[in-house]
Design a protein that fits this description.
This protein is α/β, with parallel strands linked by helices and about 280 residues long. Helices cover about 40% and strands about 15% of the residues. It has 10 helices and 12 strands. It has helices spanning about 15-30, 50-65, 80-90, 100-110, 130-140, 150-160, 195-205, 220-230, 260-265, 270-275, and strands at about 5, 35-40, 70-75, 95, 115, 120, 145-150, 165, 170-175, 185, 210, 235-240. Helix 1 (about 15-30) packs across helix 10 (about 270-275) and helix 7 (about 195-205) crosses helix 8. The chain is globular and about 60 Å long.
Length: about 280
């Protein structure tokens, strides 16, 4: 089977050495007969900037990476993600949540000892119990709402154990319940990372997803979405996060670690590739 890999950055800052390592690894895994894709994940329109988008293409080309055209830019495909959300709604596994962050925090404090997941305290399920009429009335009244996954309902609909394979740690049993009723869309961001990346990896036929260890737990949720939507299941490789001498992980805000800063300091693409190979 032809390997299809991808590098999918968000234009919210300049690329750093960790991004270079991930992109170079993905291209290498595609091999001479596979396909290496670049995808721009810019659904968060409040944080993405045109200058960062331009820099992504410039920095990757400087490194010597080549990718297929056209590049998929997620902000051009919100209709695709809405169609996914519509399918999940028709399945009965999405519901509108009218709670503000303040409401949720107050309910969590009232309950006490709320269960926690990868993103913190789990949503207490307040709006899960609203009637269809109440939901309809509140939407008609113009109340803002997010769309949450009814986790228990989704798991029951699937009705079987789900697994996925990570090249670093092997076979994994999916436990998406660790996220509780996760948000899949908001008013200001009409789709979530979970929806858009799961859809696009299937659409593009990605056979190996390479991403940082900080997204390892997200794969449990993505495996559930894949099963609900009838999507293909890729292999995964969650790599460690690069850190500096101080032990802190590289971040886009660290100017000295960015690829363009390294280039301005006189480093060559070979120098950067050598550093990335140590990853």
């Amino acid at each position: 089977m032809t390997a299809i890999t991808r590098f999918a950055p968000s234009p919210t800052g300049y690329l750093h050495l960790g991004h270079a390592a991930s992109a170079l690894f993905s291209m290498k895994q595609a091999g001479p007969h596979g396909r290496f894709l670049l995808r721009i994940e810019d659904i968060d329109q409040t944080r993405c900037r045109p200058e960062y988008l331009h820099a992504i293409f410039e920095d990757l080309a400087w490194l010597g990476l080549r990718w297929e055209e056209p590049v998929r830019v997620q902000s051009e495909h919100f209709a695709d993600y809405q169609a996914v959300l519509d399918r999940l709604t028709e399945m009965g596994v999405l519901y509108p949540c009218f709670c503000t962050r303040k409401d949720i925090q107050a309910e969590i404090e009232r309950i006490g000892n709320a269960p926690h997941g990868p993103d913190g305290a789990l949503y207490p399920g307040t709006c899960r119990h609203c009637s269809a009429q109440e939901r309809s009335d509140r939407i008609a009244a113009g109340e803002s709402f997010a769309l949450r996954l009814d986790m228990d309902g989704a798991i029951k609909r699937v009705g079987r154990e789900l697994v996925w394979f990570d090249r670093a740690v092997g076979r994994q049993i999916a436990t998406p319940e660790i996220f509780g009723d996760v948000v899949l869309a908001r008013k200001d961001t009409p789709t979530s990372y979970h929806v858009s990346v799961t859809h696009d990896d299937h659409l593009q036929g990605i056979s190996l997803v390479t991403r940082g260890q900080d997204l390892f737990f997200a794969s449990h949720l993505h495996r559930l979405l894949q099963e609900l939507l009838g999507y293909d299941v890729p292999e995964y490789h969650h790599h460690g996060l690069l850190t500096g001498p101080d032990g802190k992980r590289f971040a886009k805000r660290d100017k000295s670690k960015t690829l363009r800063s390294m280039r301005e300091d006189g480093m060559s693409p070979d120098d950067v590739r050598l550093l990335a190979d140590q990853f």
